[in-house]
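Project outcomes to date are best conveyed with an example. Our students and postdoctoral researchers have been running inverse folding experiments weekly, and each run begins with a structure described purely in tokens. The record below, which covers 782 residues, was selected by the lab manager from last quarter's runs and is presented without edits.
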């Protein structure tokens, strides 16, 4: 069958004939693929028997000159270490040099490169964020991002059993001033061989005998929870420590609002009822604080017990090792008489037992069943899954954003749960490194398996960072028992701007701790406020939602609340969020998507939203609302946005004249953009230097004086030769004409000032387009 490919190859020699010499070496083969002749050239009849094609060098668009090829070859072979002097002095060749450098150069050989186009190539080739392609050269820190990516590659390539401290510290000292962000996702985990010793049931001694162990700093700002104290003694101690807090609560009890959440509120005029409600609320707040303190003390006590047990085990190992190192005492041998040999009968003969089968006790591939049983019995606990020393982040004191995820190495199909686990010691080292980052603003620890001990350790290193603004613990499997620890993150002088806790297992304890911390910060008169609180996809119950809403209502915190896909009942959601919409003025955004509601419950939320004139974003997708209710919610949000853009609406201090002036100042965005561009262009033209520099009168006068002096000096008279007198009038005339031209100002050429005769005179002159025929006619005439 005659195909399209056969038609294209028509007129060419058969494939079996080796007309073209294709090299076998990889380097030469790459060059051949780059400069081989095109198919259009090879299909020509006159080119069938040719083996060399110089036309390939001419037809290639990006080939360049031979000097450019040499620059590219030098750039690929030598990199940035040795740049030739001619290349360094020529900007065009230096541009070609940086465009030819490999993006996979080691960091030590390219950290000093200042060319932004090279670092942009590095970032686009290695970053997973594809939106960076849209950023221009001067809109992003390409050099800092590229250096950070190359350093993170070295970190992720280090095995978990070995961390080159001195080498990485020296490299960090070279690049620390450029690194602002760091994104670590795929740290190496321990290999299977490193777990063999822990799998064995014999409990062999570890090889490490150093007395240096990781000690966790446990804050002692609250009392110890000792097992020797009874419950009554614990209550007495907690009452003594919270005496000051009780006095503050009693003073501010009258200012607190009622804890009940209702739509139709009736004003209470009786003072005894208000006092009773204030005391009840103060009692609930005090009870929540007691519970949070008890939980934190319990975590601290468990950490202390773990440290004590670890220290005791270490001392036992040291004692056993010291005993094993001692030489045994040699007992004096006793001389025995030689006994007479007596004949032993068959029935009196001692028979040795069979030797043990050593291979039966070996657990490896020779005994696969035992090996599988041992592997299945060992669950790879988190305390054995260590990583490299994460305290290296302290080297980068200019770090602004740190993203950390324990996703393990790139597994592909070799998935194993040990790659995703990390130990408490990893968090201890990380917390010690975070304490040195005074400029850190964003911290994200996502896709990790946290527990309350690890979270308590990490929060100890985060709560002292004054510049911290965003904390993200999404997808971390945080349980509700860690709620008291999350509350400590909000007990700080400079409040966070965003706390993201999506996709966890938080409930009442976490909601109570977060709400109580925000209320306490509001009562203390904090200047900064929490803007975003994300609790989406958590197990938030009815009581947890109502408790959180009760605490944040009336404060300046939480302008954006995300409670998407929580597990609370629809009636509780409508009641709590309706109360929040009516009584929380700072609220601007509310996300309640994927919460199953019905038409009646949704109508209550729409009524509450209509009462609010500040919310500019209301996400109710997937809530089973009617299309009319969703449309009504969208109209209300657009109304609020319009009122926010036009501040004169609802302002009684504005007059009609002020409103008219405001409307006159409003312009279309495209028109405003055009006017701004023209204004910028005019300012640029004003600052531009003049293109034509005219000689000043002083320079003309100095030129005339120099010419007069030259004419007055007669060299022939000095030599004794008689000549005719020179005529100085011509010089004066030329100087005067030059001065007249200079007095007229800068030269200005008007291309449209020619008349018809001048146009006919100059139209036949050869220009750029017909210069070939001009020179041809000249040659023919000569």
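After processing, the design step wrote out the following sequence:
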């Amino acid at each position: 069958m005659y195909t399209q490919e056969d038609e294209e190859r028509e007129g060419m020699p058969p494939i079996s004939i080796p007309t073209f010499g294709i090299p076998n070496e990889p380097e030469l083969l790459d060059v051949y693929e780059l400069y081989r002749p095109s198919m259009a050239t090879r299909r020509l009849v006159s080119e069938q028997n040719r083996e060399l094609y110089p036309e390939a060098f001419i037809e290639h668009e990006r080939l360049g000159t031979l000097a450019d090829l040499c620059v590219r070859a030098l750039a690929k072979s030598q990199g940035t270490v040795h740049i030739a002097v001619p290349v360094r002095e020529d900007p065009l060749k230096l541009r070609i040099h940086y465009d030819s450098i490999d993006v996979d150069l080691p960091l030590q050989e390219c950290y000093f490169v200042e060319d932004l186009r090279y670092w942009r190539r590095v970032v686009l080739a290695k970053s997973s964020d594809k939106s960076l392609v849209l950023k221009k050269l001067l809109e992003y820190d390409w050099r800092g991002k590229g250096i950070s990516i190359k350093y993170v590659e070295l970190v992720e390539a280090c095995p978990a059993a070995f961390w080159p401290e001195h080498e990485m510290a020296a490299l960090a000292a070279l690049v620390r001033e450029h690194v602002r962000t760091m994104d670590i996702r795929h740290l190496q985990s321990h290999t299977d061989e490193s777990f063999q010793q822990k799998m064995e049931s014999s409990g062999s001694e570890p090889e490490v005998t150093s007395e240096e162990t990781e000690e966790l700093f446990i804050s002692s700002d609250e009392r110890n929870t000792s097992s020797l104290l009874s419950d009554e003694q614990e209550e007495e101690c907690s009452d003594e420590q919270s005496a000051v807090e009780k006095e503050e609560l009693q003073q501010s009890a009258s200012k607190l609002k009622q804890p009940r959440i209702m739509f139709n509120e009736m004003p209470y005029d009786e003072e005894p009822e208000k006092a009773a409600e204030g005391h009840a609320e103060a009692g609930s707040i005090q009870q929540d604080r007691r519970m949070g303190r008890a939980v934190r003390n319990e975590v601290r006590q468990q950490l202390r017990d773990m440290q004590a047990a670890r220290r005791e085990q270490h001392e036992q190992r040291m004692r056993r090792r010291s005993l094993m190192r001692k030489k045994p005492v040699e007992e004096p041998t006793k001389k025995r008489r030689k006994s007479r040999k007596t004949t032993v009968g068959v029935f009196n003969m001692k028979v040795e037992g069979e030797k043990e089968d050593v291979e039966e006790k070996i657990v490896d591939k020779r005994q696969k069943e035992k090996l599988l049983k041992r592997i299945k019995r060992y669950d790879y606990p988190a305390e054995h899954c260590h990583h490299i020393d994460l305290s290296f982040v302290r080297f980068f004191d200019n770090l602004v954003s740190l993203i950390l995820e324990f996703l393990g190495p790139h597994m592909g199909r070799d998935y194993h749960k040990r790659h995703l686990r990390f130990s408490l010691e990893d968090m201890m080292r990380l917390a010690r490194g975070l304490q040195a980052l005074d400029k850190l603003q964003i911290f994200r620890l996502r896709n990790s398996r946290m527990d309350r001990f690890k979270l308590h350790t990490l929060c100890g290193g985060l709560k002292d960072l004054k510049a911290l603004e965003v904390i993200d613990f999404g997808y971390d499997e945080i349980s509700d028992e860690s709620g008291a620890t999350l509350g400590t993150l909000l007990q700080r002088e400079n409040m966070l701007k965003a706390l993201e806790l999506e996709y966890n297992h938080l409930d009442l304890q976490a909601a109570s701790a977060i709400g109580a911390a925000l209320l306490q910060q509001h009562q203390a008169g904090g200047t900064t406020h929490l803007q975003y609180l994300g609790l989406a996809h958590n197990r938030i119950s009815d009581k947890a939602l109502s408790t959180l809403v009760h605490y944040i209502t009336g404060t300046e915190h939480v302008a954006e609340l995300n409670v998407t896909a929580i597990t609370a009942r629809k009636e509780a959601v409508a009641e709590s969020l309706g109360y929040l919409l009516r009584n929380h003025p700072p609220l601007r955004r509310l996300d309640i998507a994927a919460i199953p509601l019905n038409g009646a419950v949704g109508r209550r939320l729409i009524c509450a939203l209509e009462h609010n004139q500040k919310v500019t974003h209301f996400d109710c997708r997937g809530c089973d609302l009617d299309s009319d209710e969703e449309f009504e919610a969208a109209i209300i949000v657009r109304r609020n946005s319009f009122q926010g853009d036009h501040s004169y609406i609802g302002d009684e201090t504005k007059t009609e004249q002020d409103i008219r002036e405001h409307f006159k100042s409003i312009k279309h965005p495209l028109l405003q953009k055009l006017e701004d561009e023209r204004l910028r262009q005019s300012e640029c033209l004003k600052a531009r230097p003049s293109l034509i520099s005219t000689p000043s009168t002083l320079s003309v006068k100095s030129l005339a004086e120099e010419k007069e002096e030259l004419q007055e000096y007669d060299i022939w008279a000095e030599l004794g030769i008689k000549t005719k007198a020179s005529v100085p009038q011509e010089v004066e005339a030329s100087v005067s004409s030059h001065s007249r031209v200079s007095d007229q100002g800068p030269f200005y050429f008007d291309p449209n000032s020619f008349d018809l005769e001048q146009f006919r005179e100059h139209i036949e002159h050869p220009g750029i387009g017909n210069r070939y025929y001009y020179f041809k006619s000249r040659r023919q005439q000569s």
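The two ends are 64 Å apart (CA to CA). Strands lie at 181-184, 401-405, 442-446, 470-472, 498-500, 532-534, 560-562, 589-591, 617-619. The training component of this project remains on track.
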